Structures
1.
Amino acid sequence: MQLISLQDLSVSYGGNTVLSNVTFGISPGEIVTIVGPNGSGKSTLLRSVIGAQMPSKGTVNRSPDLRIGYVPQKLHIDPTLPMTVRRFLSLPDRVSNAQATSALEQAGAGQLSNRQMADLSGGQFQRVLLARALLCQPQLLILDEATQGLDQPGSAAFYQKIETLRQTLGCAILMVSHELHVVMAASDRVICLNGHICCEGEPEHVASAPEYRALFGSGTQGALALYRHEHNHSHDHSCGHDHGKDETGGQHSHPAHEAHR
């Protein structure tokens, strides 16, 4: 059973169509990445999945009592406002010390509870936002450009944490990012969006699809080939042509990950 399924979803603002006839679903434990140029409707799609944006037409079906955790692209907190990480986690709804401690430890931020939010580095701030999203023990974790502003090692470490959470919590993950080679290598399935779904499938197949290369260029395929990602389960592909297994057995080297070993 899918956690979320979208059927022929379209969204328009003031007569301007932002998304058109988008259909896809997310299964438990799956990591799905949405890529696309600026203005392609990525954030609108996430808002539709969450329920913050009503579709102009089409449907969004969620499994009953689905728990969704959300890590926003950015969150501004007044730097002059005294607020500890622990206090931040209890806004707007108070959580117990045990809940806060567990979420921070899961996010790799267990030592930050008494720190001031204004004093956190970019990477620490994102870990705290991740902890906040984990408070509900989500079945679906949604990340909207969650590593924006982080350097490459910081981004790689963050995505490693996401993979660990998928394994330990069993949650599905839906994420948007411009860091194509990193997020695609960390994904089970990639959706290339430009107002509609241009192509969809396993990362190595999307990277070689004409629709993807027309948007991002052929260089990204070479970058993806440097990564290693184990694929021991199958997905449907819809990149406009049939794909068999790649010659390497679906494995791609992960230098960014190996740098943190």
2.
Amino acid sequence: MSTPPSTFPIKRQRLFDQVAQHLEAMILSGEVGVGDPLPSERELMERFGVGRPAVREALLWLNKKGLISVSAGERARVVEPDPSELLEHLSGAALLFASTPRGMQQFQQTRLFTEVALAREACRWTSADDLKRLEQLLRDNEASAGNMETFARTDDAFHFGIASLAHNPLIDALYRSVLSVLQNQRYTSLQHHDALHAAIDCHTRIFDAIAARDPDRAEQVMRTHLTNVESFYWDVRGKPARHPPDAAADASQAAEKPRKKTN
């Protein structure tokens, strides 16, 4: 008895999917530029040979993807991409992923890689005005040490201040997204008895390294700081942090013997 041939089902595309794909190709090719209106609904119906419902569903889908804006009584227009919107639709899935130990560890690792690079590059990018703004964020954070909620908020502001030195809206959006996902880590790690002192000490040394245009020192202190934060988080959670041996040792030493604050 012969074996029946394998089957490969063909997915049937809905009409609005096909219309949306054609319109997206028009936008991405530059046929319709940023700020330009798309053809009217009637023109699109005639062009694609479909009814109004298919056209409207396609426009709503493109609007959801952030490619066009749709307003009642007006023709849809191609919009300038907003980096924050590019990442917004990932937030729900990211929070779910970070709710598992493995997901949290991978987000922590992503933050470490990102911020270490940002601290290093900040030594090249930073202007005198940038340094003044960053120093004020540092002082605000130091002054809030008596209020944990305010300290967490100003801690975020200091780190975001470093990320913003790149003057890159996509980096800003990516960093805000990562910080949002790691909100639980922030408050949990600060419950550790060494966390506050270690954070203030490292923040000061990070700022000093950036001000001195010392990329190696900025990278090393930022790595130590974020390794500390991760270690404190898992210690409070009652689980070991998973770091390479040298990073773990560096974090342990920094936590046990934090340097004195420098002016």
3.
Amino acid sequence: MTAAKSLLAQRFRGYYPVVIDVETAGFNAKTDALLEIAATLLGMDEAGNLVPTQTLHFHVEPFAGANLDASSLAFNGIDPFNPLRGAVPEREAISEICKAVRKAQKEAGCQRSVIVAHNAAFDQSFFNAAVERLNYKRSPFHAFVSFDTTSLSALALGQTVLAKACQAAGIAFDNKEAHSALYDTERTAELFCYIVNSWKQLGGWPLAQPVEDEAAQTASA
């Protein structure tokens, strides 16, 4: 294990962060179709800065019996049955993402992965619903822990909307490209890395040694 990988394993209590965004045919994870999903894997460089490393992206076929809400489809502009989408079965998309995440998690020396997303409860609920539908047994992700960049952006940048948070962080954001899982995932990954790395630069990480530990070391010297 390299020094950079061991730093990543230490940074989030053994969790390996993976940025995920989904596009869907509604708001109900149990009944509405998952139509697009992207996942950006992260790494840590030798200076201890978090960086995006790889993005996986899939257009997804609606599962059998899925609800397709017309207003949601009008909003995201997705035609679920357009053959040019190159959509794959839900099982293939989830399996390929989990396979890549497990590999990266192991290489980073982490014990479990955690979903990072903007308004994370939404994306996590659709991912978990797909895992449950498929009876998929090898998900590397924690079932309920997530890192929400909406909350982190509110704290660090005073913004909660993804586009405005990116702009405040100096990250280029094209509203015409928004609501694509691939685009939103990559911008969210940049935003998450920016916030984590900024906290480090401000002196918030690594944690300072507790005062009592310093006193104990002085006494035993």
4.
Amino acid sequence: MKDLDDATRTELEAAAFRRLLEHLRERTDVQNIDLMNLAGFCRNCLSNWLKDAADARQVPLSKDESRTYVYGMPYEEWKARHQKDASPTQLDQFGKSKPGH
């Protein structure tokens, strides 16, 4: 990758990001708390990072718009369809592994 020009690197990174989003949209069984406990980030983090990148470039993008893009639907709709209550074990693990969250 170090030998790639910036435009090609950006295209590959963007393609990988889009594929990650597709994967997460298909894996609605994987809860955000599971992602946080395992990897330290979740769908909300991705949407926040996307908004941060837009803000840094002065591109208008609201929090709701960034979440809709990441989730593939409005966030409240995704929560109603797919989000489950976290178990005590998940919450305990989250409490132990949440650096900065």
